Amino acid sequence: MKKYALCLGYLPKTNYSGFSSQLHDPKNILTQVISAFKEARLVDLEIDSEIRFASRTDRGVGALDQIVSLNAKHSPILPEINFYLSDSIRVLGLTKVSSSFHPRRDAILRTYTYYLTINDDFDIIIARKMLSMLVGRHDFRNFAKRDPKKEIGTIKDIKTAEIVPVADGTYQIRLSSKSFLWQQVRRIIGHLIEVSTGKYDLEYTQQLLEAKTTKLKPPTAPAEYLVLETVQYNDVQFTYDQKALHSFQQTLRGHLMDAKAKTALYEFITGHLRGKMV
Q1: Which class does domain 2-106+234-274 fall in?
Q2: Beta-bridge mates of residue 161
Q3: Is 206 left (phi over 0), alpha (psi -120 to 50) or beta?
Q4: What does pTM read for this prediction?
C-alpha cells in the first residue's frame, strides 16, 4: 500500500457537524469522506486507523485546503471519490507522500480567514492595533475553549494577524500560526468586534493575554464566515483536478451569492481556487 495526501474543499455550512475524528457521526465531514474512500475501494470496509487529517474545524466552518492522508490499496482517482460525495464536499488535489507523513504534525503553517461586514461604529484603526498585539508568542488561554479530554499548552506563536478590505464594507481577517487552539480564531474575532466598537479598550486586550485565569473569555464569533484557507508543508506539492476545481467554484457561487459578506467570501475563495487552475 502507498500513502497519499488529498486536498479537500468544503462549504461553510451548518448542516454538517464539522470536520473531526467523531466518525460515529454521519454528519461529520470526515465520516462522509471516509465513506467515499470505501466506495472507491481505497480502504477496507473497516475504518483505516492510518487515516489522518490536518485540522479540526467546527460546525459551519469551511475549508479550501483541508488535508487528509491515507494508505490506499491503489492510486486514488479523484473523480471517482467525488462521485460518492455531495457537491458541497470535493477532493481537489492529490500527491504521494512518504510513509512517515502526518498532515497535522508536519504542517508548518495554517492560515484561517474570517469575513466581517462592518458599519460606521467599527474603528478599523483600533482593529489593526488590536491584531498587531497578537502577533508573536502569547498565552491564548482566554481565547480558546478548553477540551476536557485534552491537556494542551495554550501558548501559541501568531505569525500573521491582519485585516484588509475585500469588498464594500466587508473585510478579510487573516490569522496564521503553526497551530491554533479550539475556537481561538473565532474568539479573537469576537474580541476584535468588542474592541473595535468601543465596548473595551486595548488595555483589556493586554489583560486577556496576560491573565492566568480563564474567566475573561471573549464571545465566539459565528462560524459561517470562517474558512481554513491553507495548510502549508515543506516539500509537498499537490496536483489538482481541474474539473473538480471548476465544479467546486460553481457550487460556491450558488451557495455564497445570497449575502454581502458571503459574496466577499465567494470572491476570495474563487480567486484562491483560480490560482490552482491551469
Answers
A1: alpha beta
A2: 175
A3: alpha
A4: 0.90
CATH top-level class for 109-225? alpha beta
58 is annotated as an active-site residue: yes
What's at 139, amino acid-wise? D
Domain with CATH 3.30.70.660 in the chain: 109-225
Question: Would you place residue 3 in the very low, low, confident or very high pLDDT band (cuts 50, 70, 90)?
Answer: very high
Residues in the chain: 278
CA gyration radius for the chain?
A: 19
Q: What 3-state DSSP class applies to 249?
A: helix
Please state the separation of Cα 112 from the chain's center in Å.
5
Distance between CA atoms of 35 and 24, rounded to whole angstroms? 12
Query: Which member of 48, 58, 65, 106 is catalytic?
Result: 58
Give the CA-trace dihedral at 44, 50, 51, 57, to 10 degrees. Answer: 150
Predicted confidence (pLDDT) per residue in 116-169, tens digit: 888 888 999 999 999 999 999 999 999 998 776 666 789 999 999 999 998 778
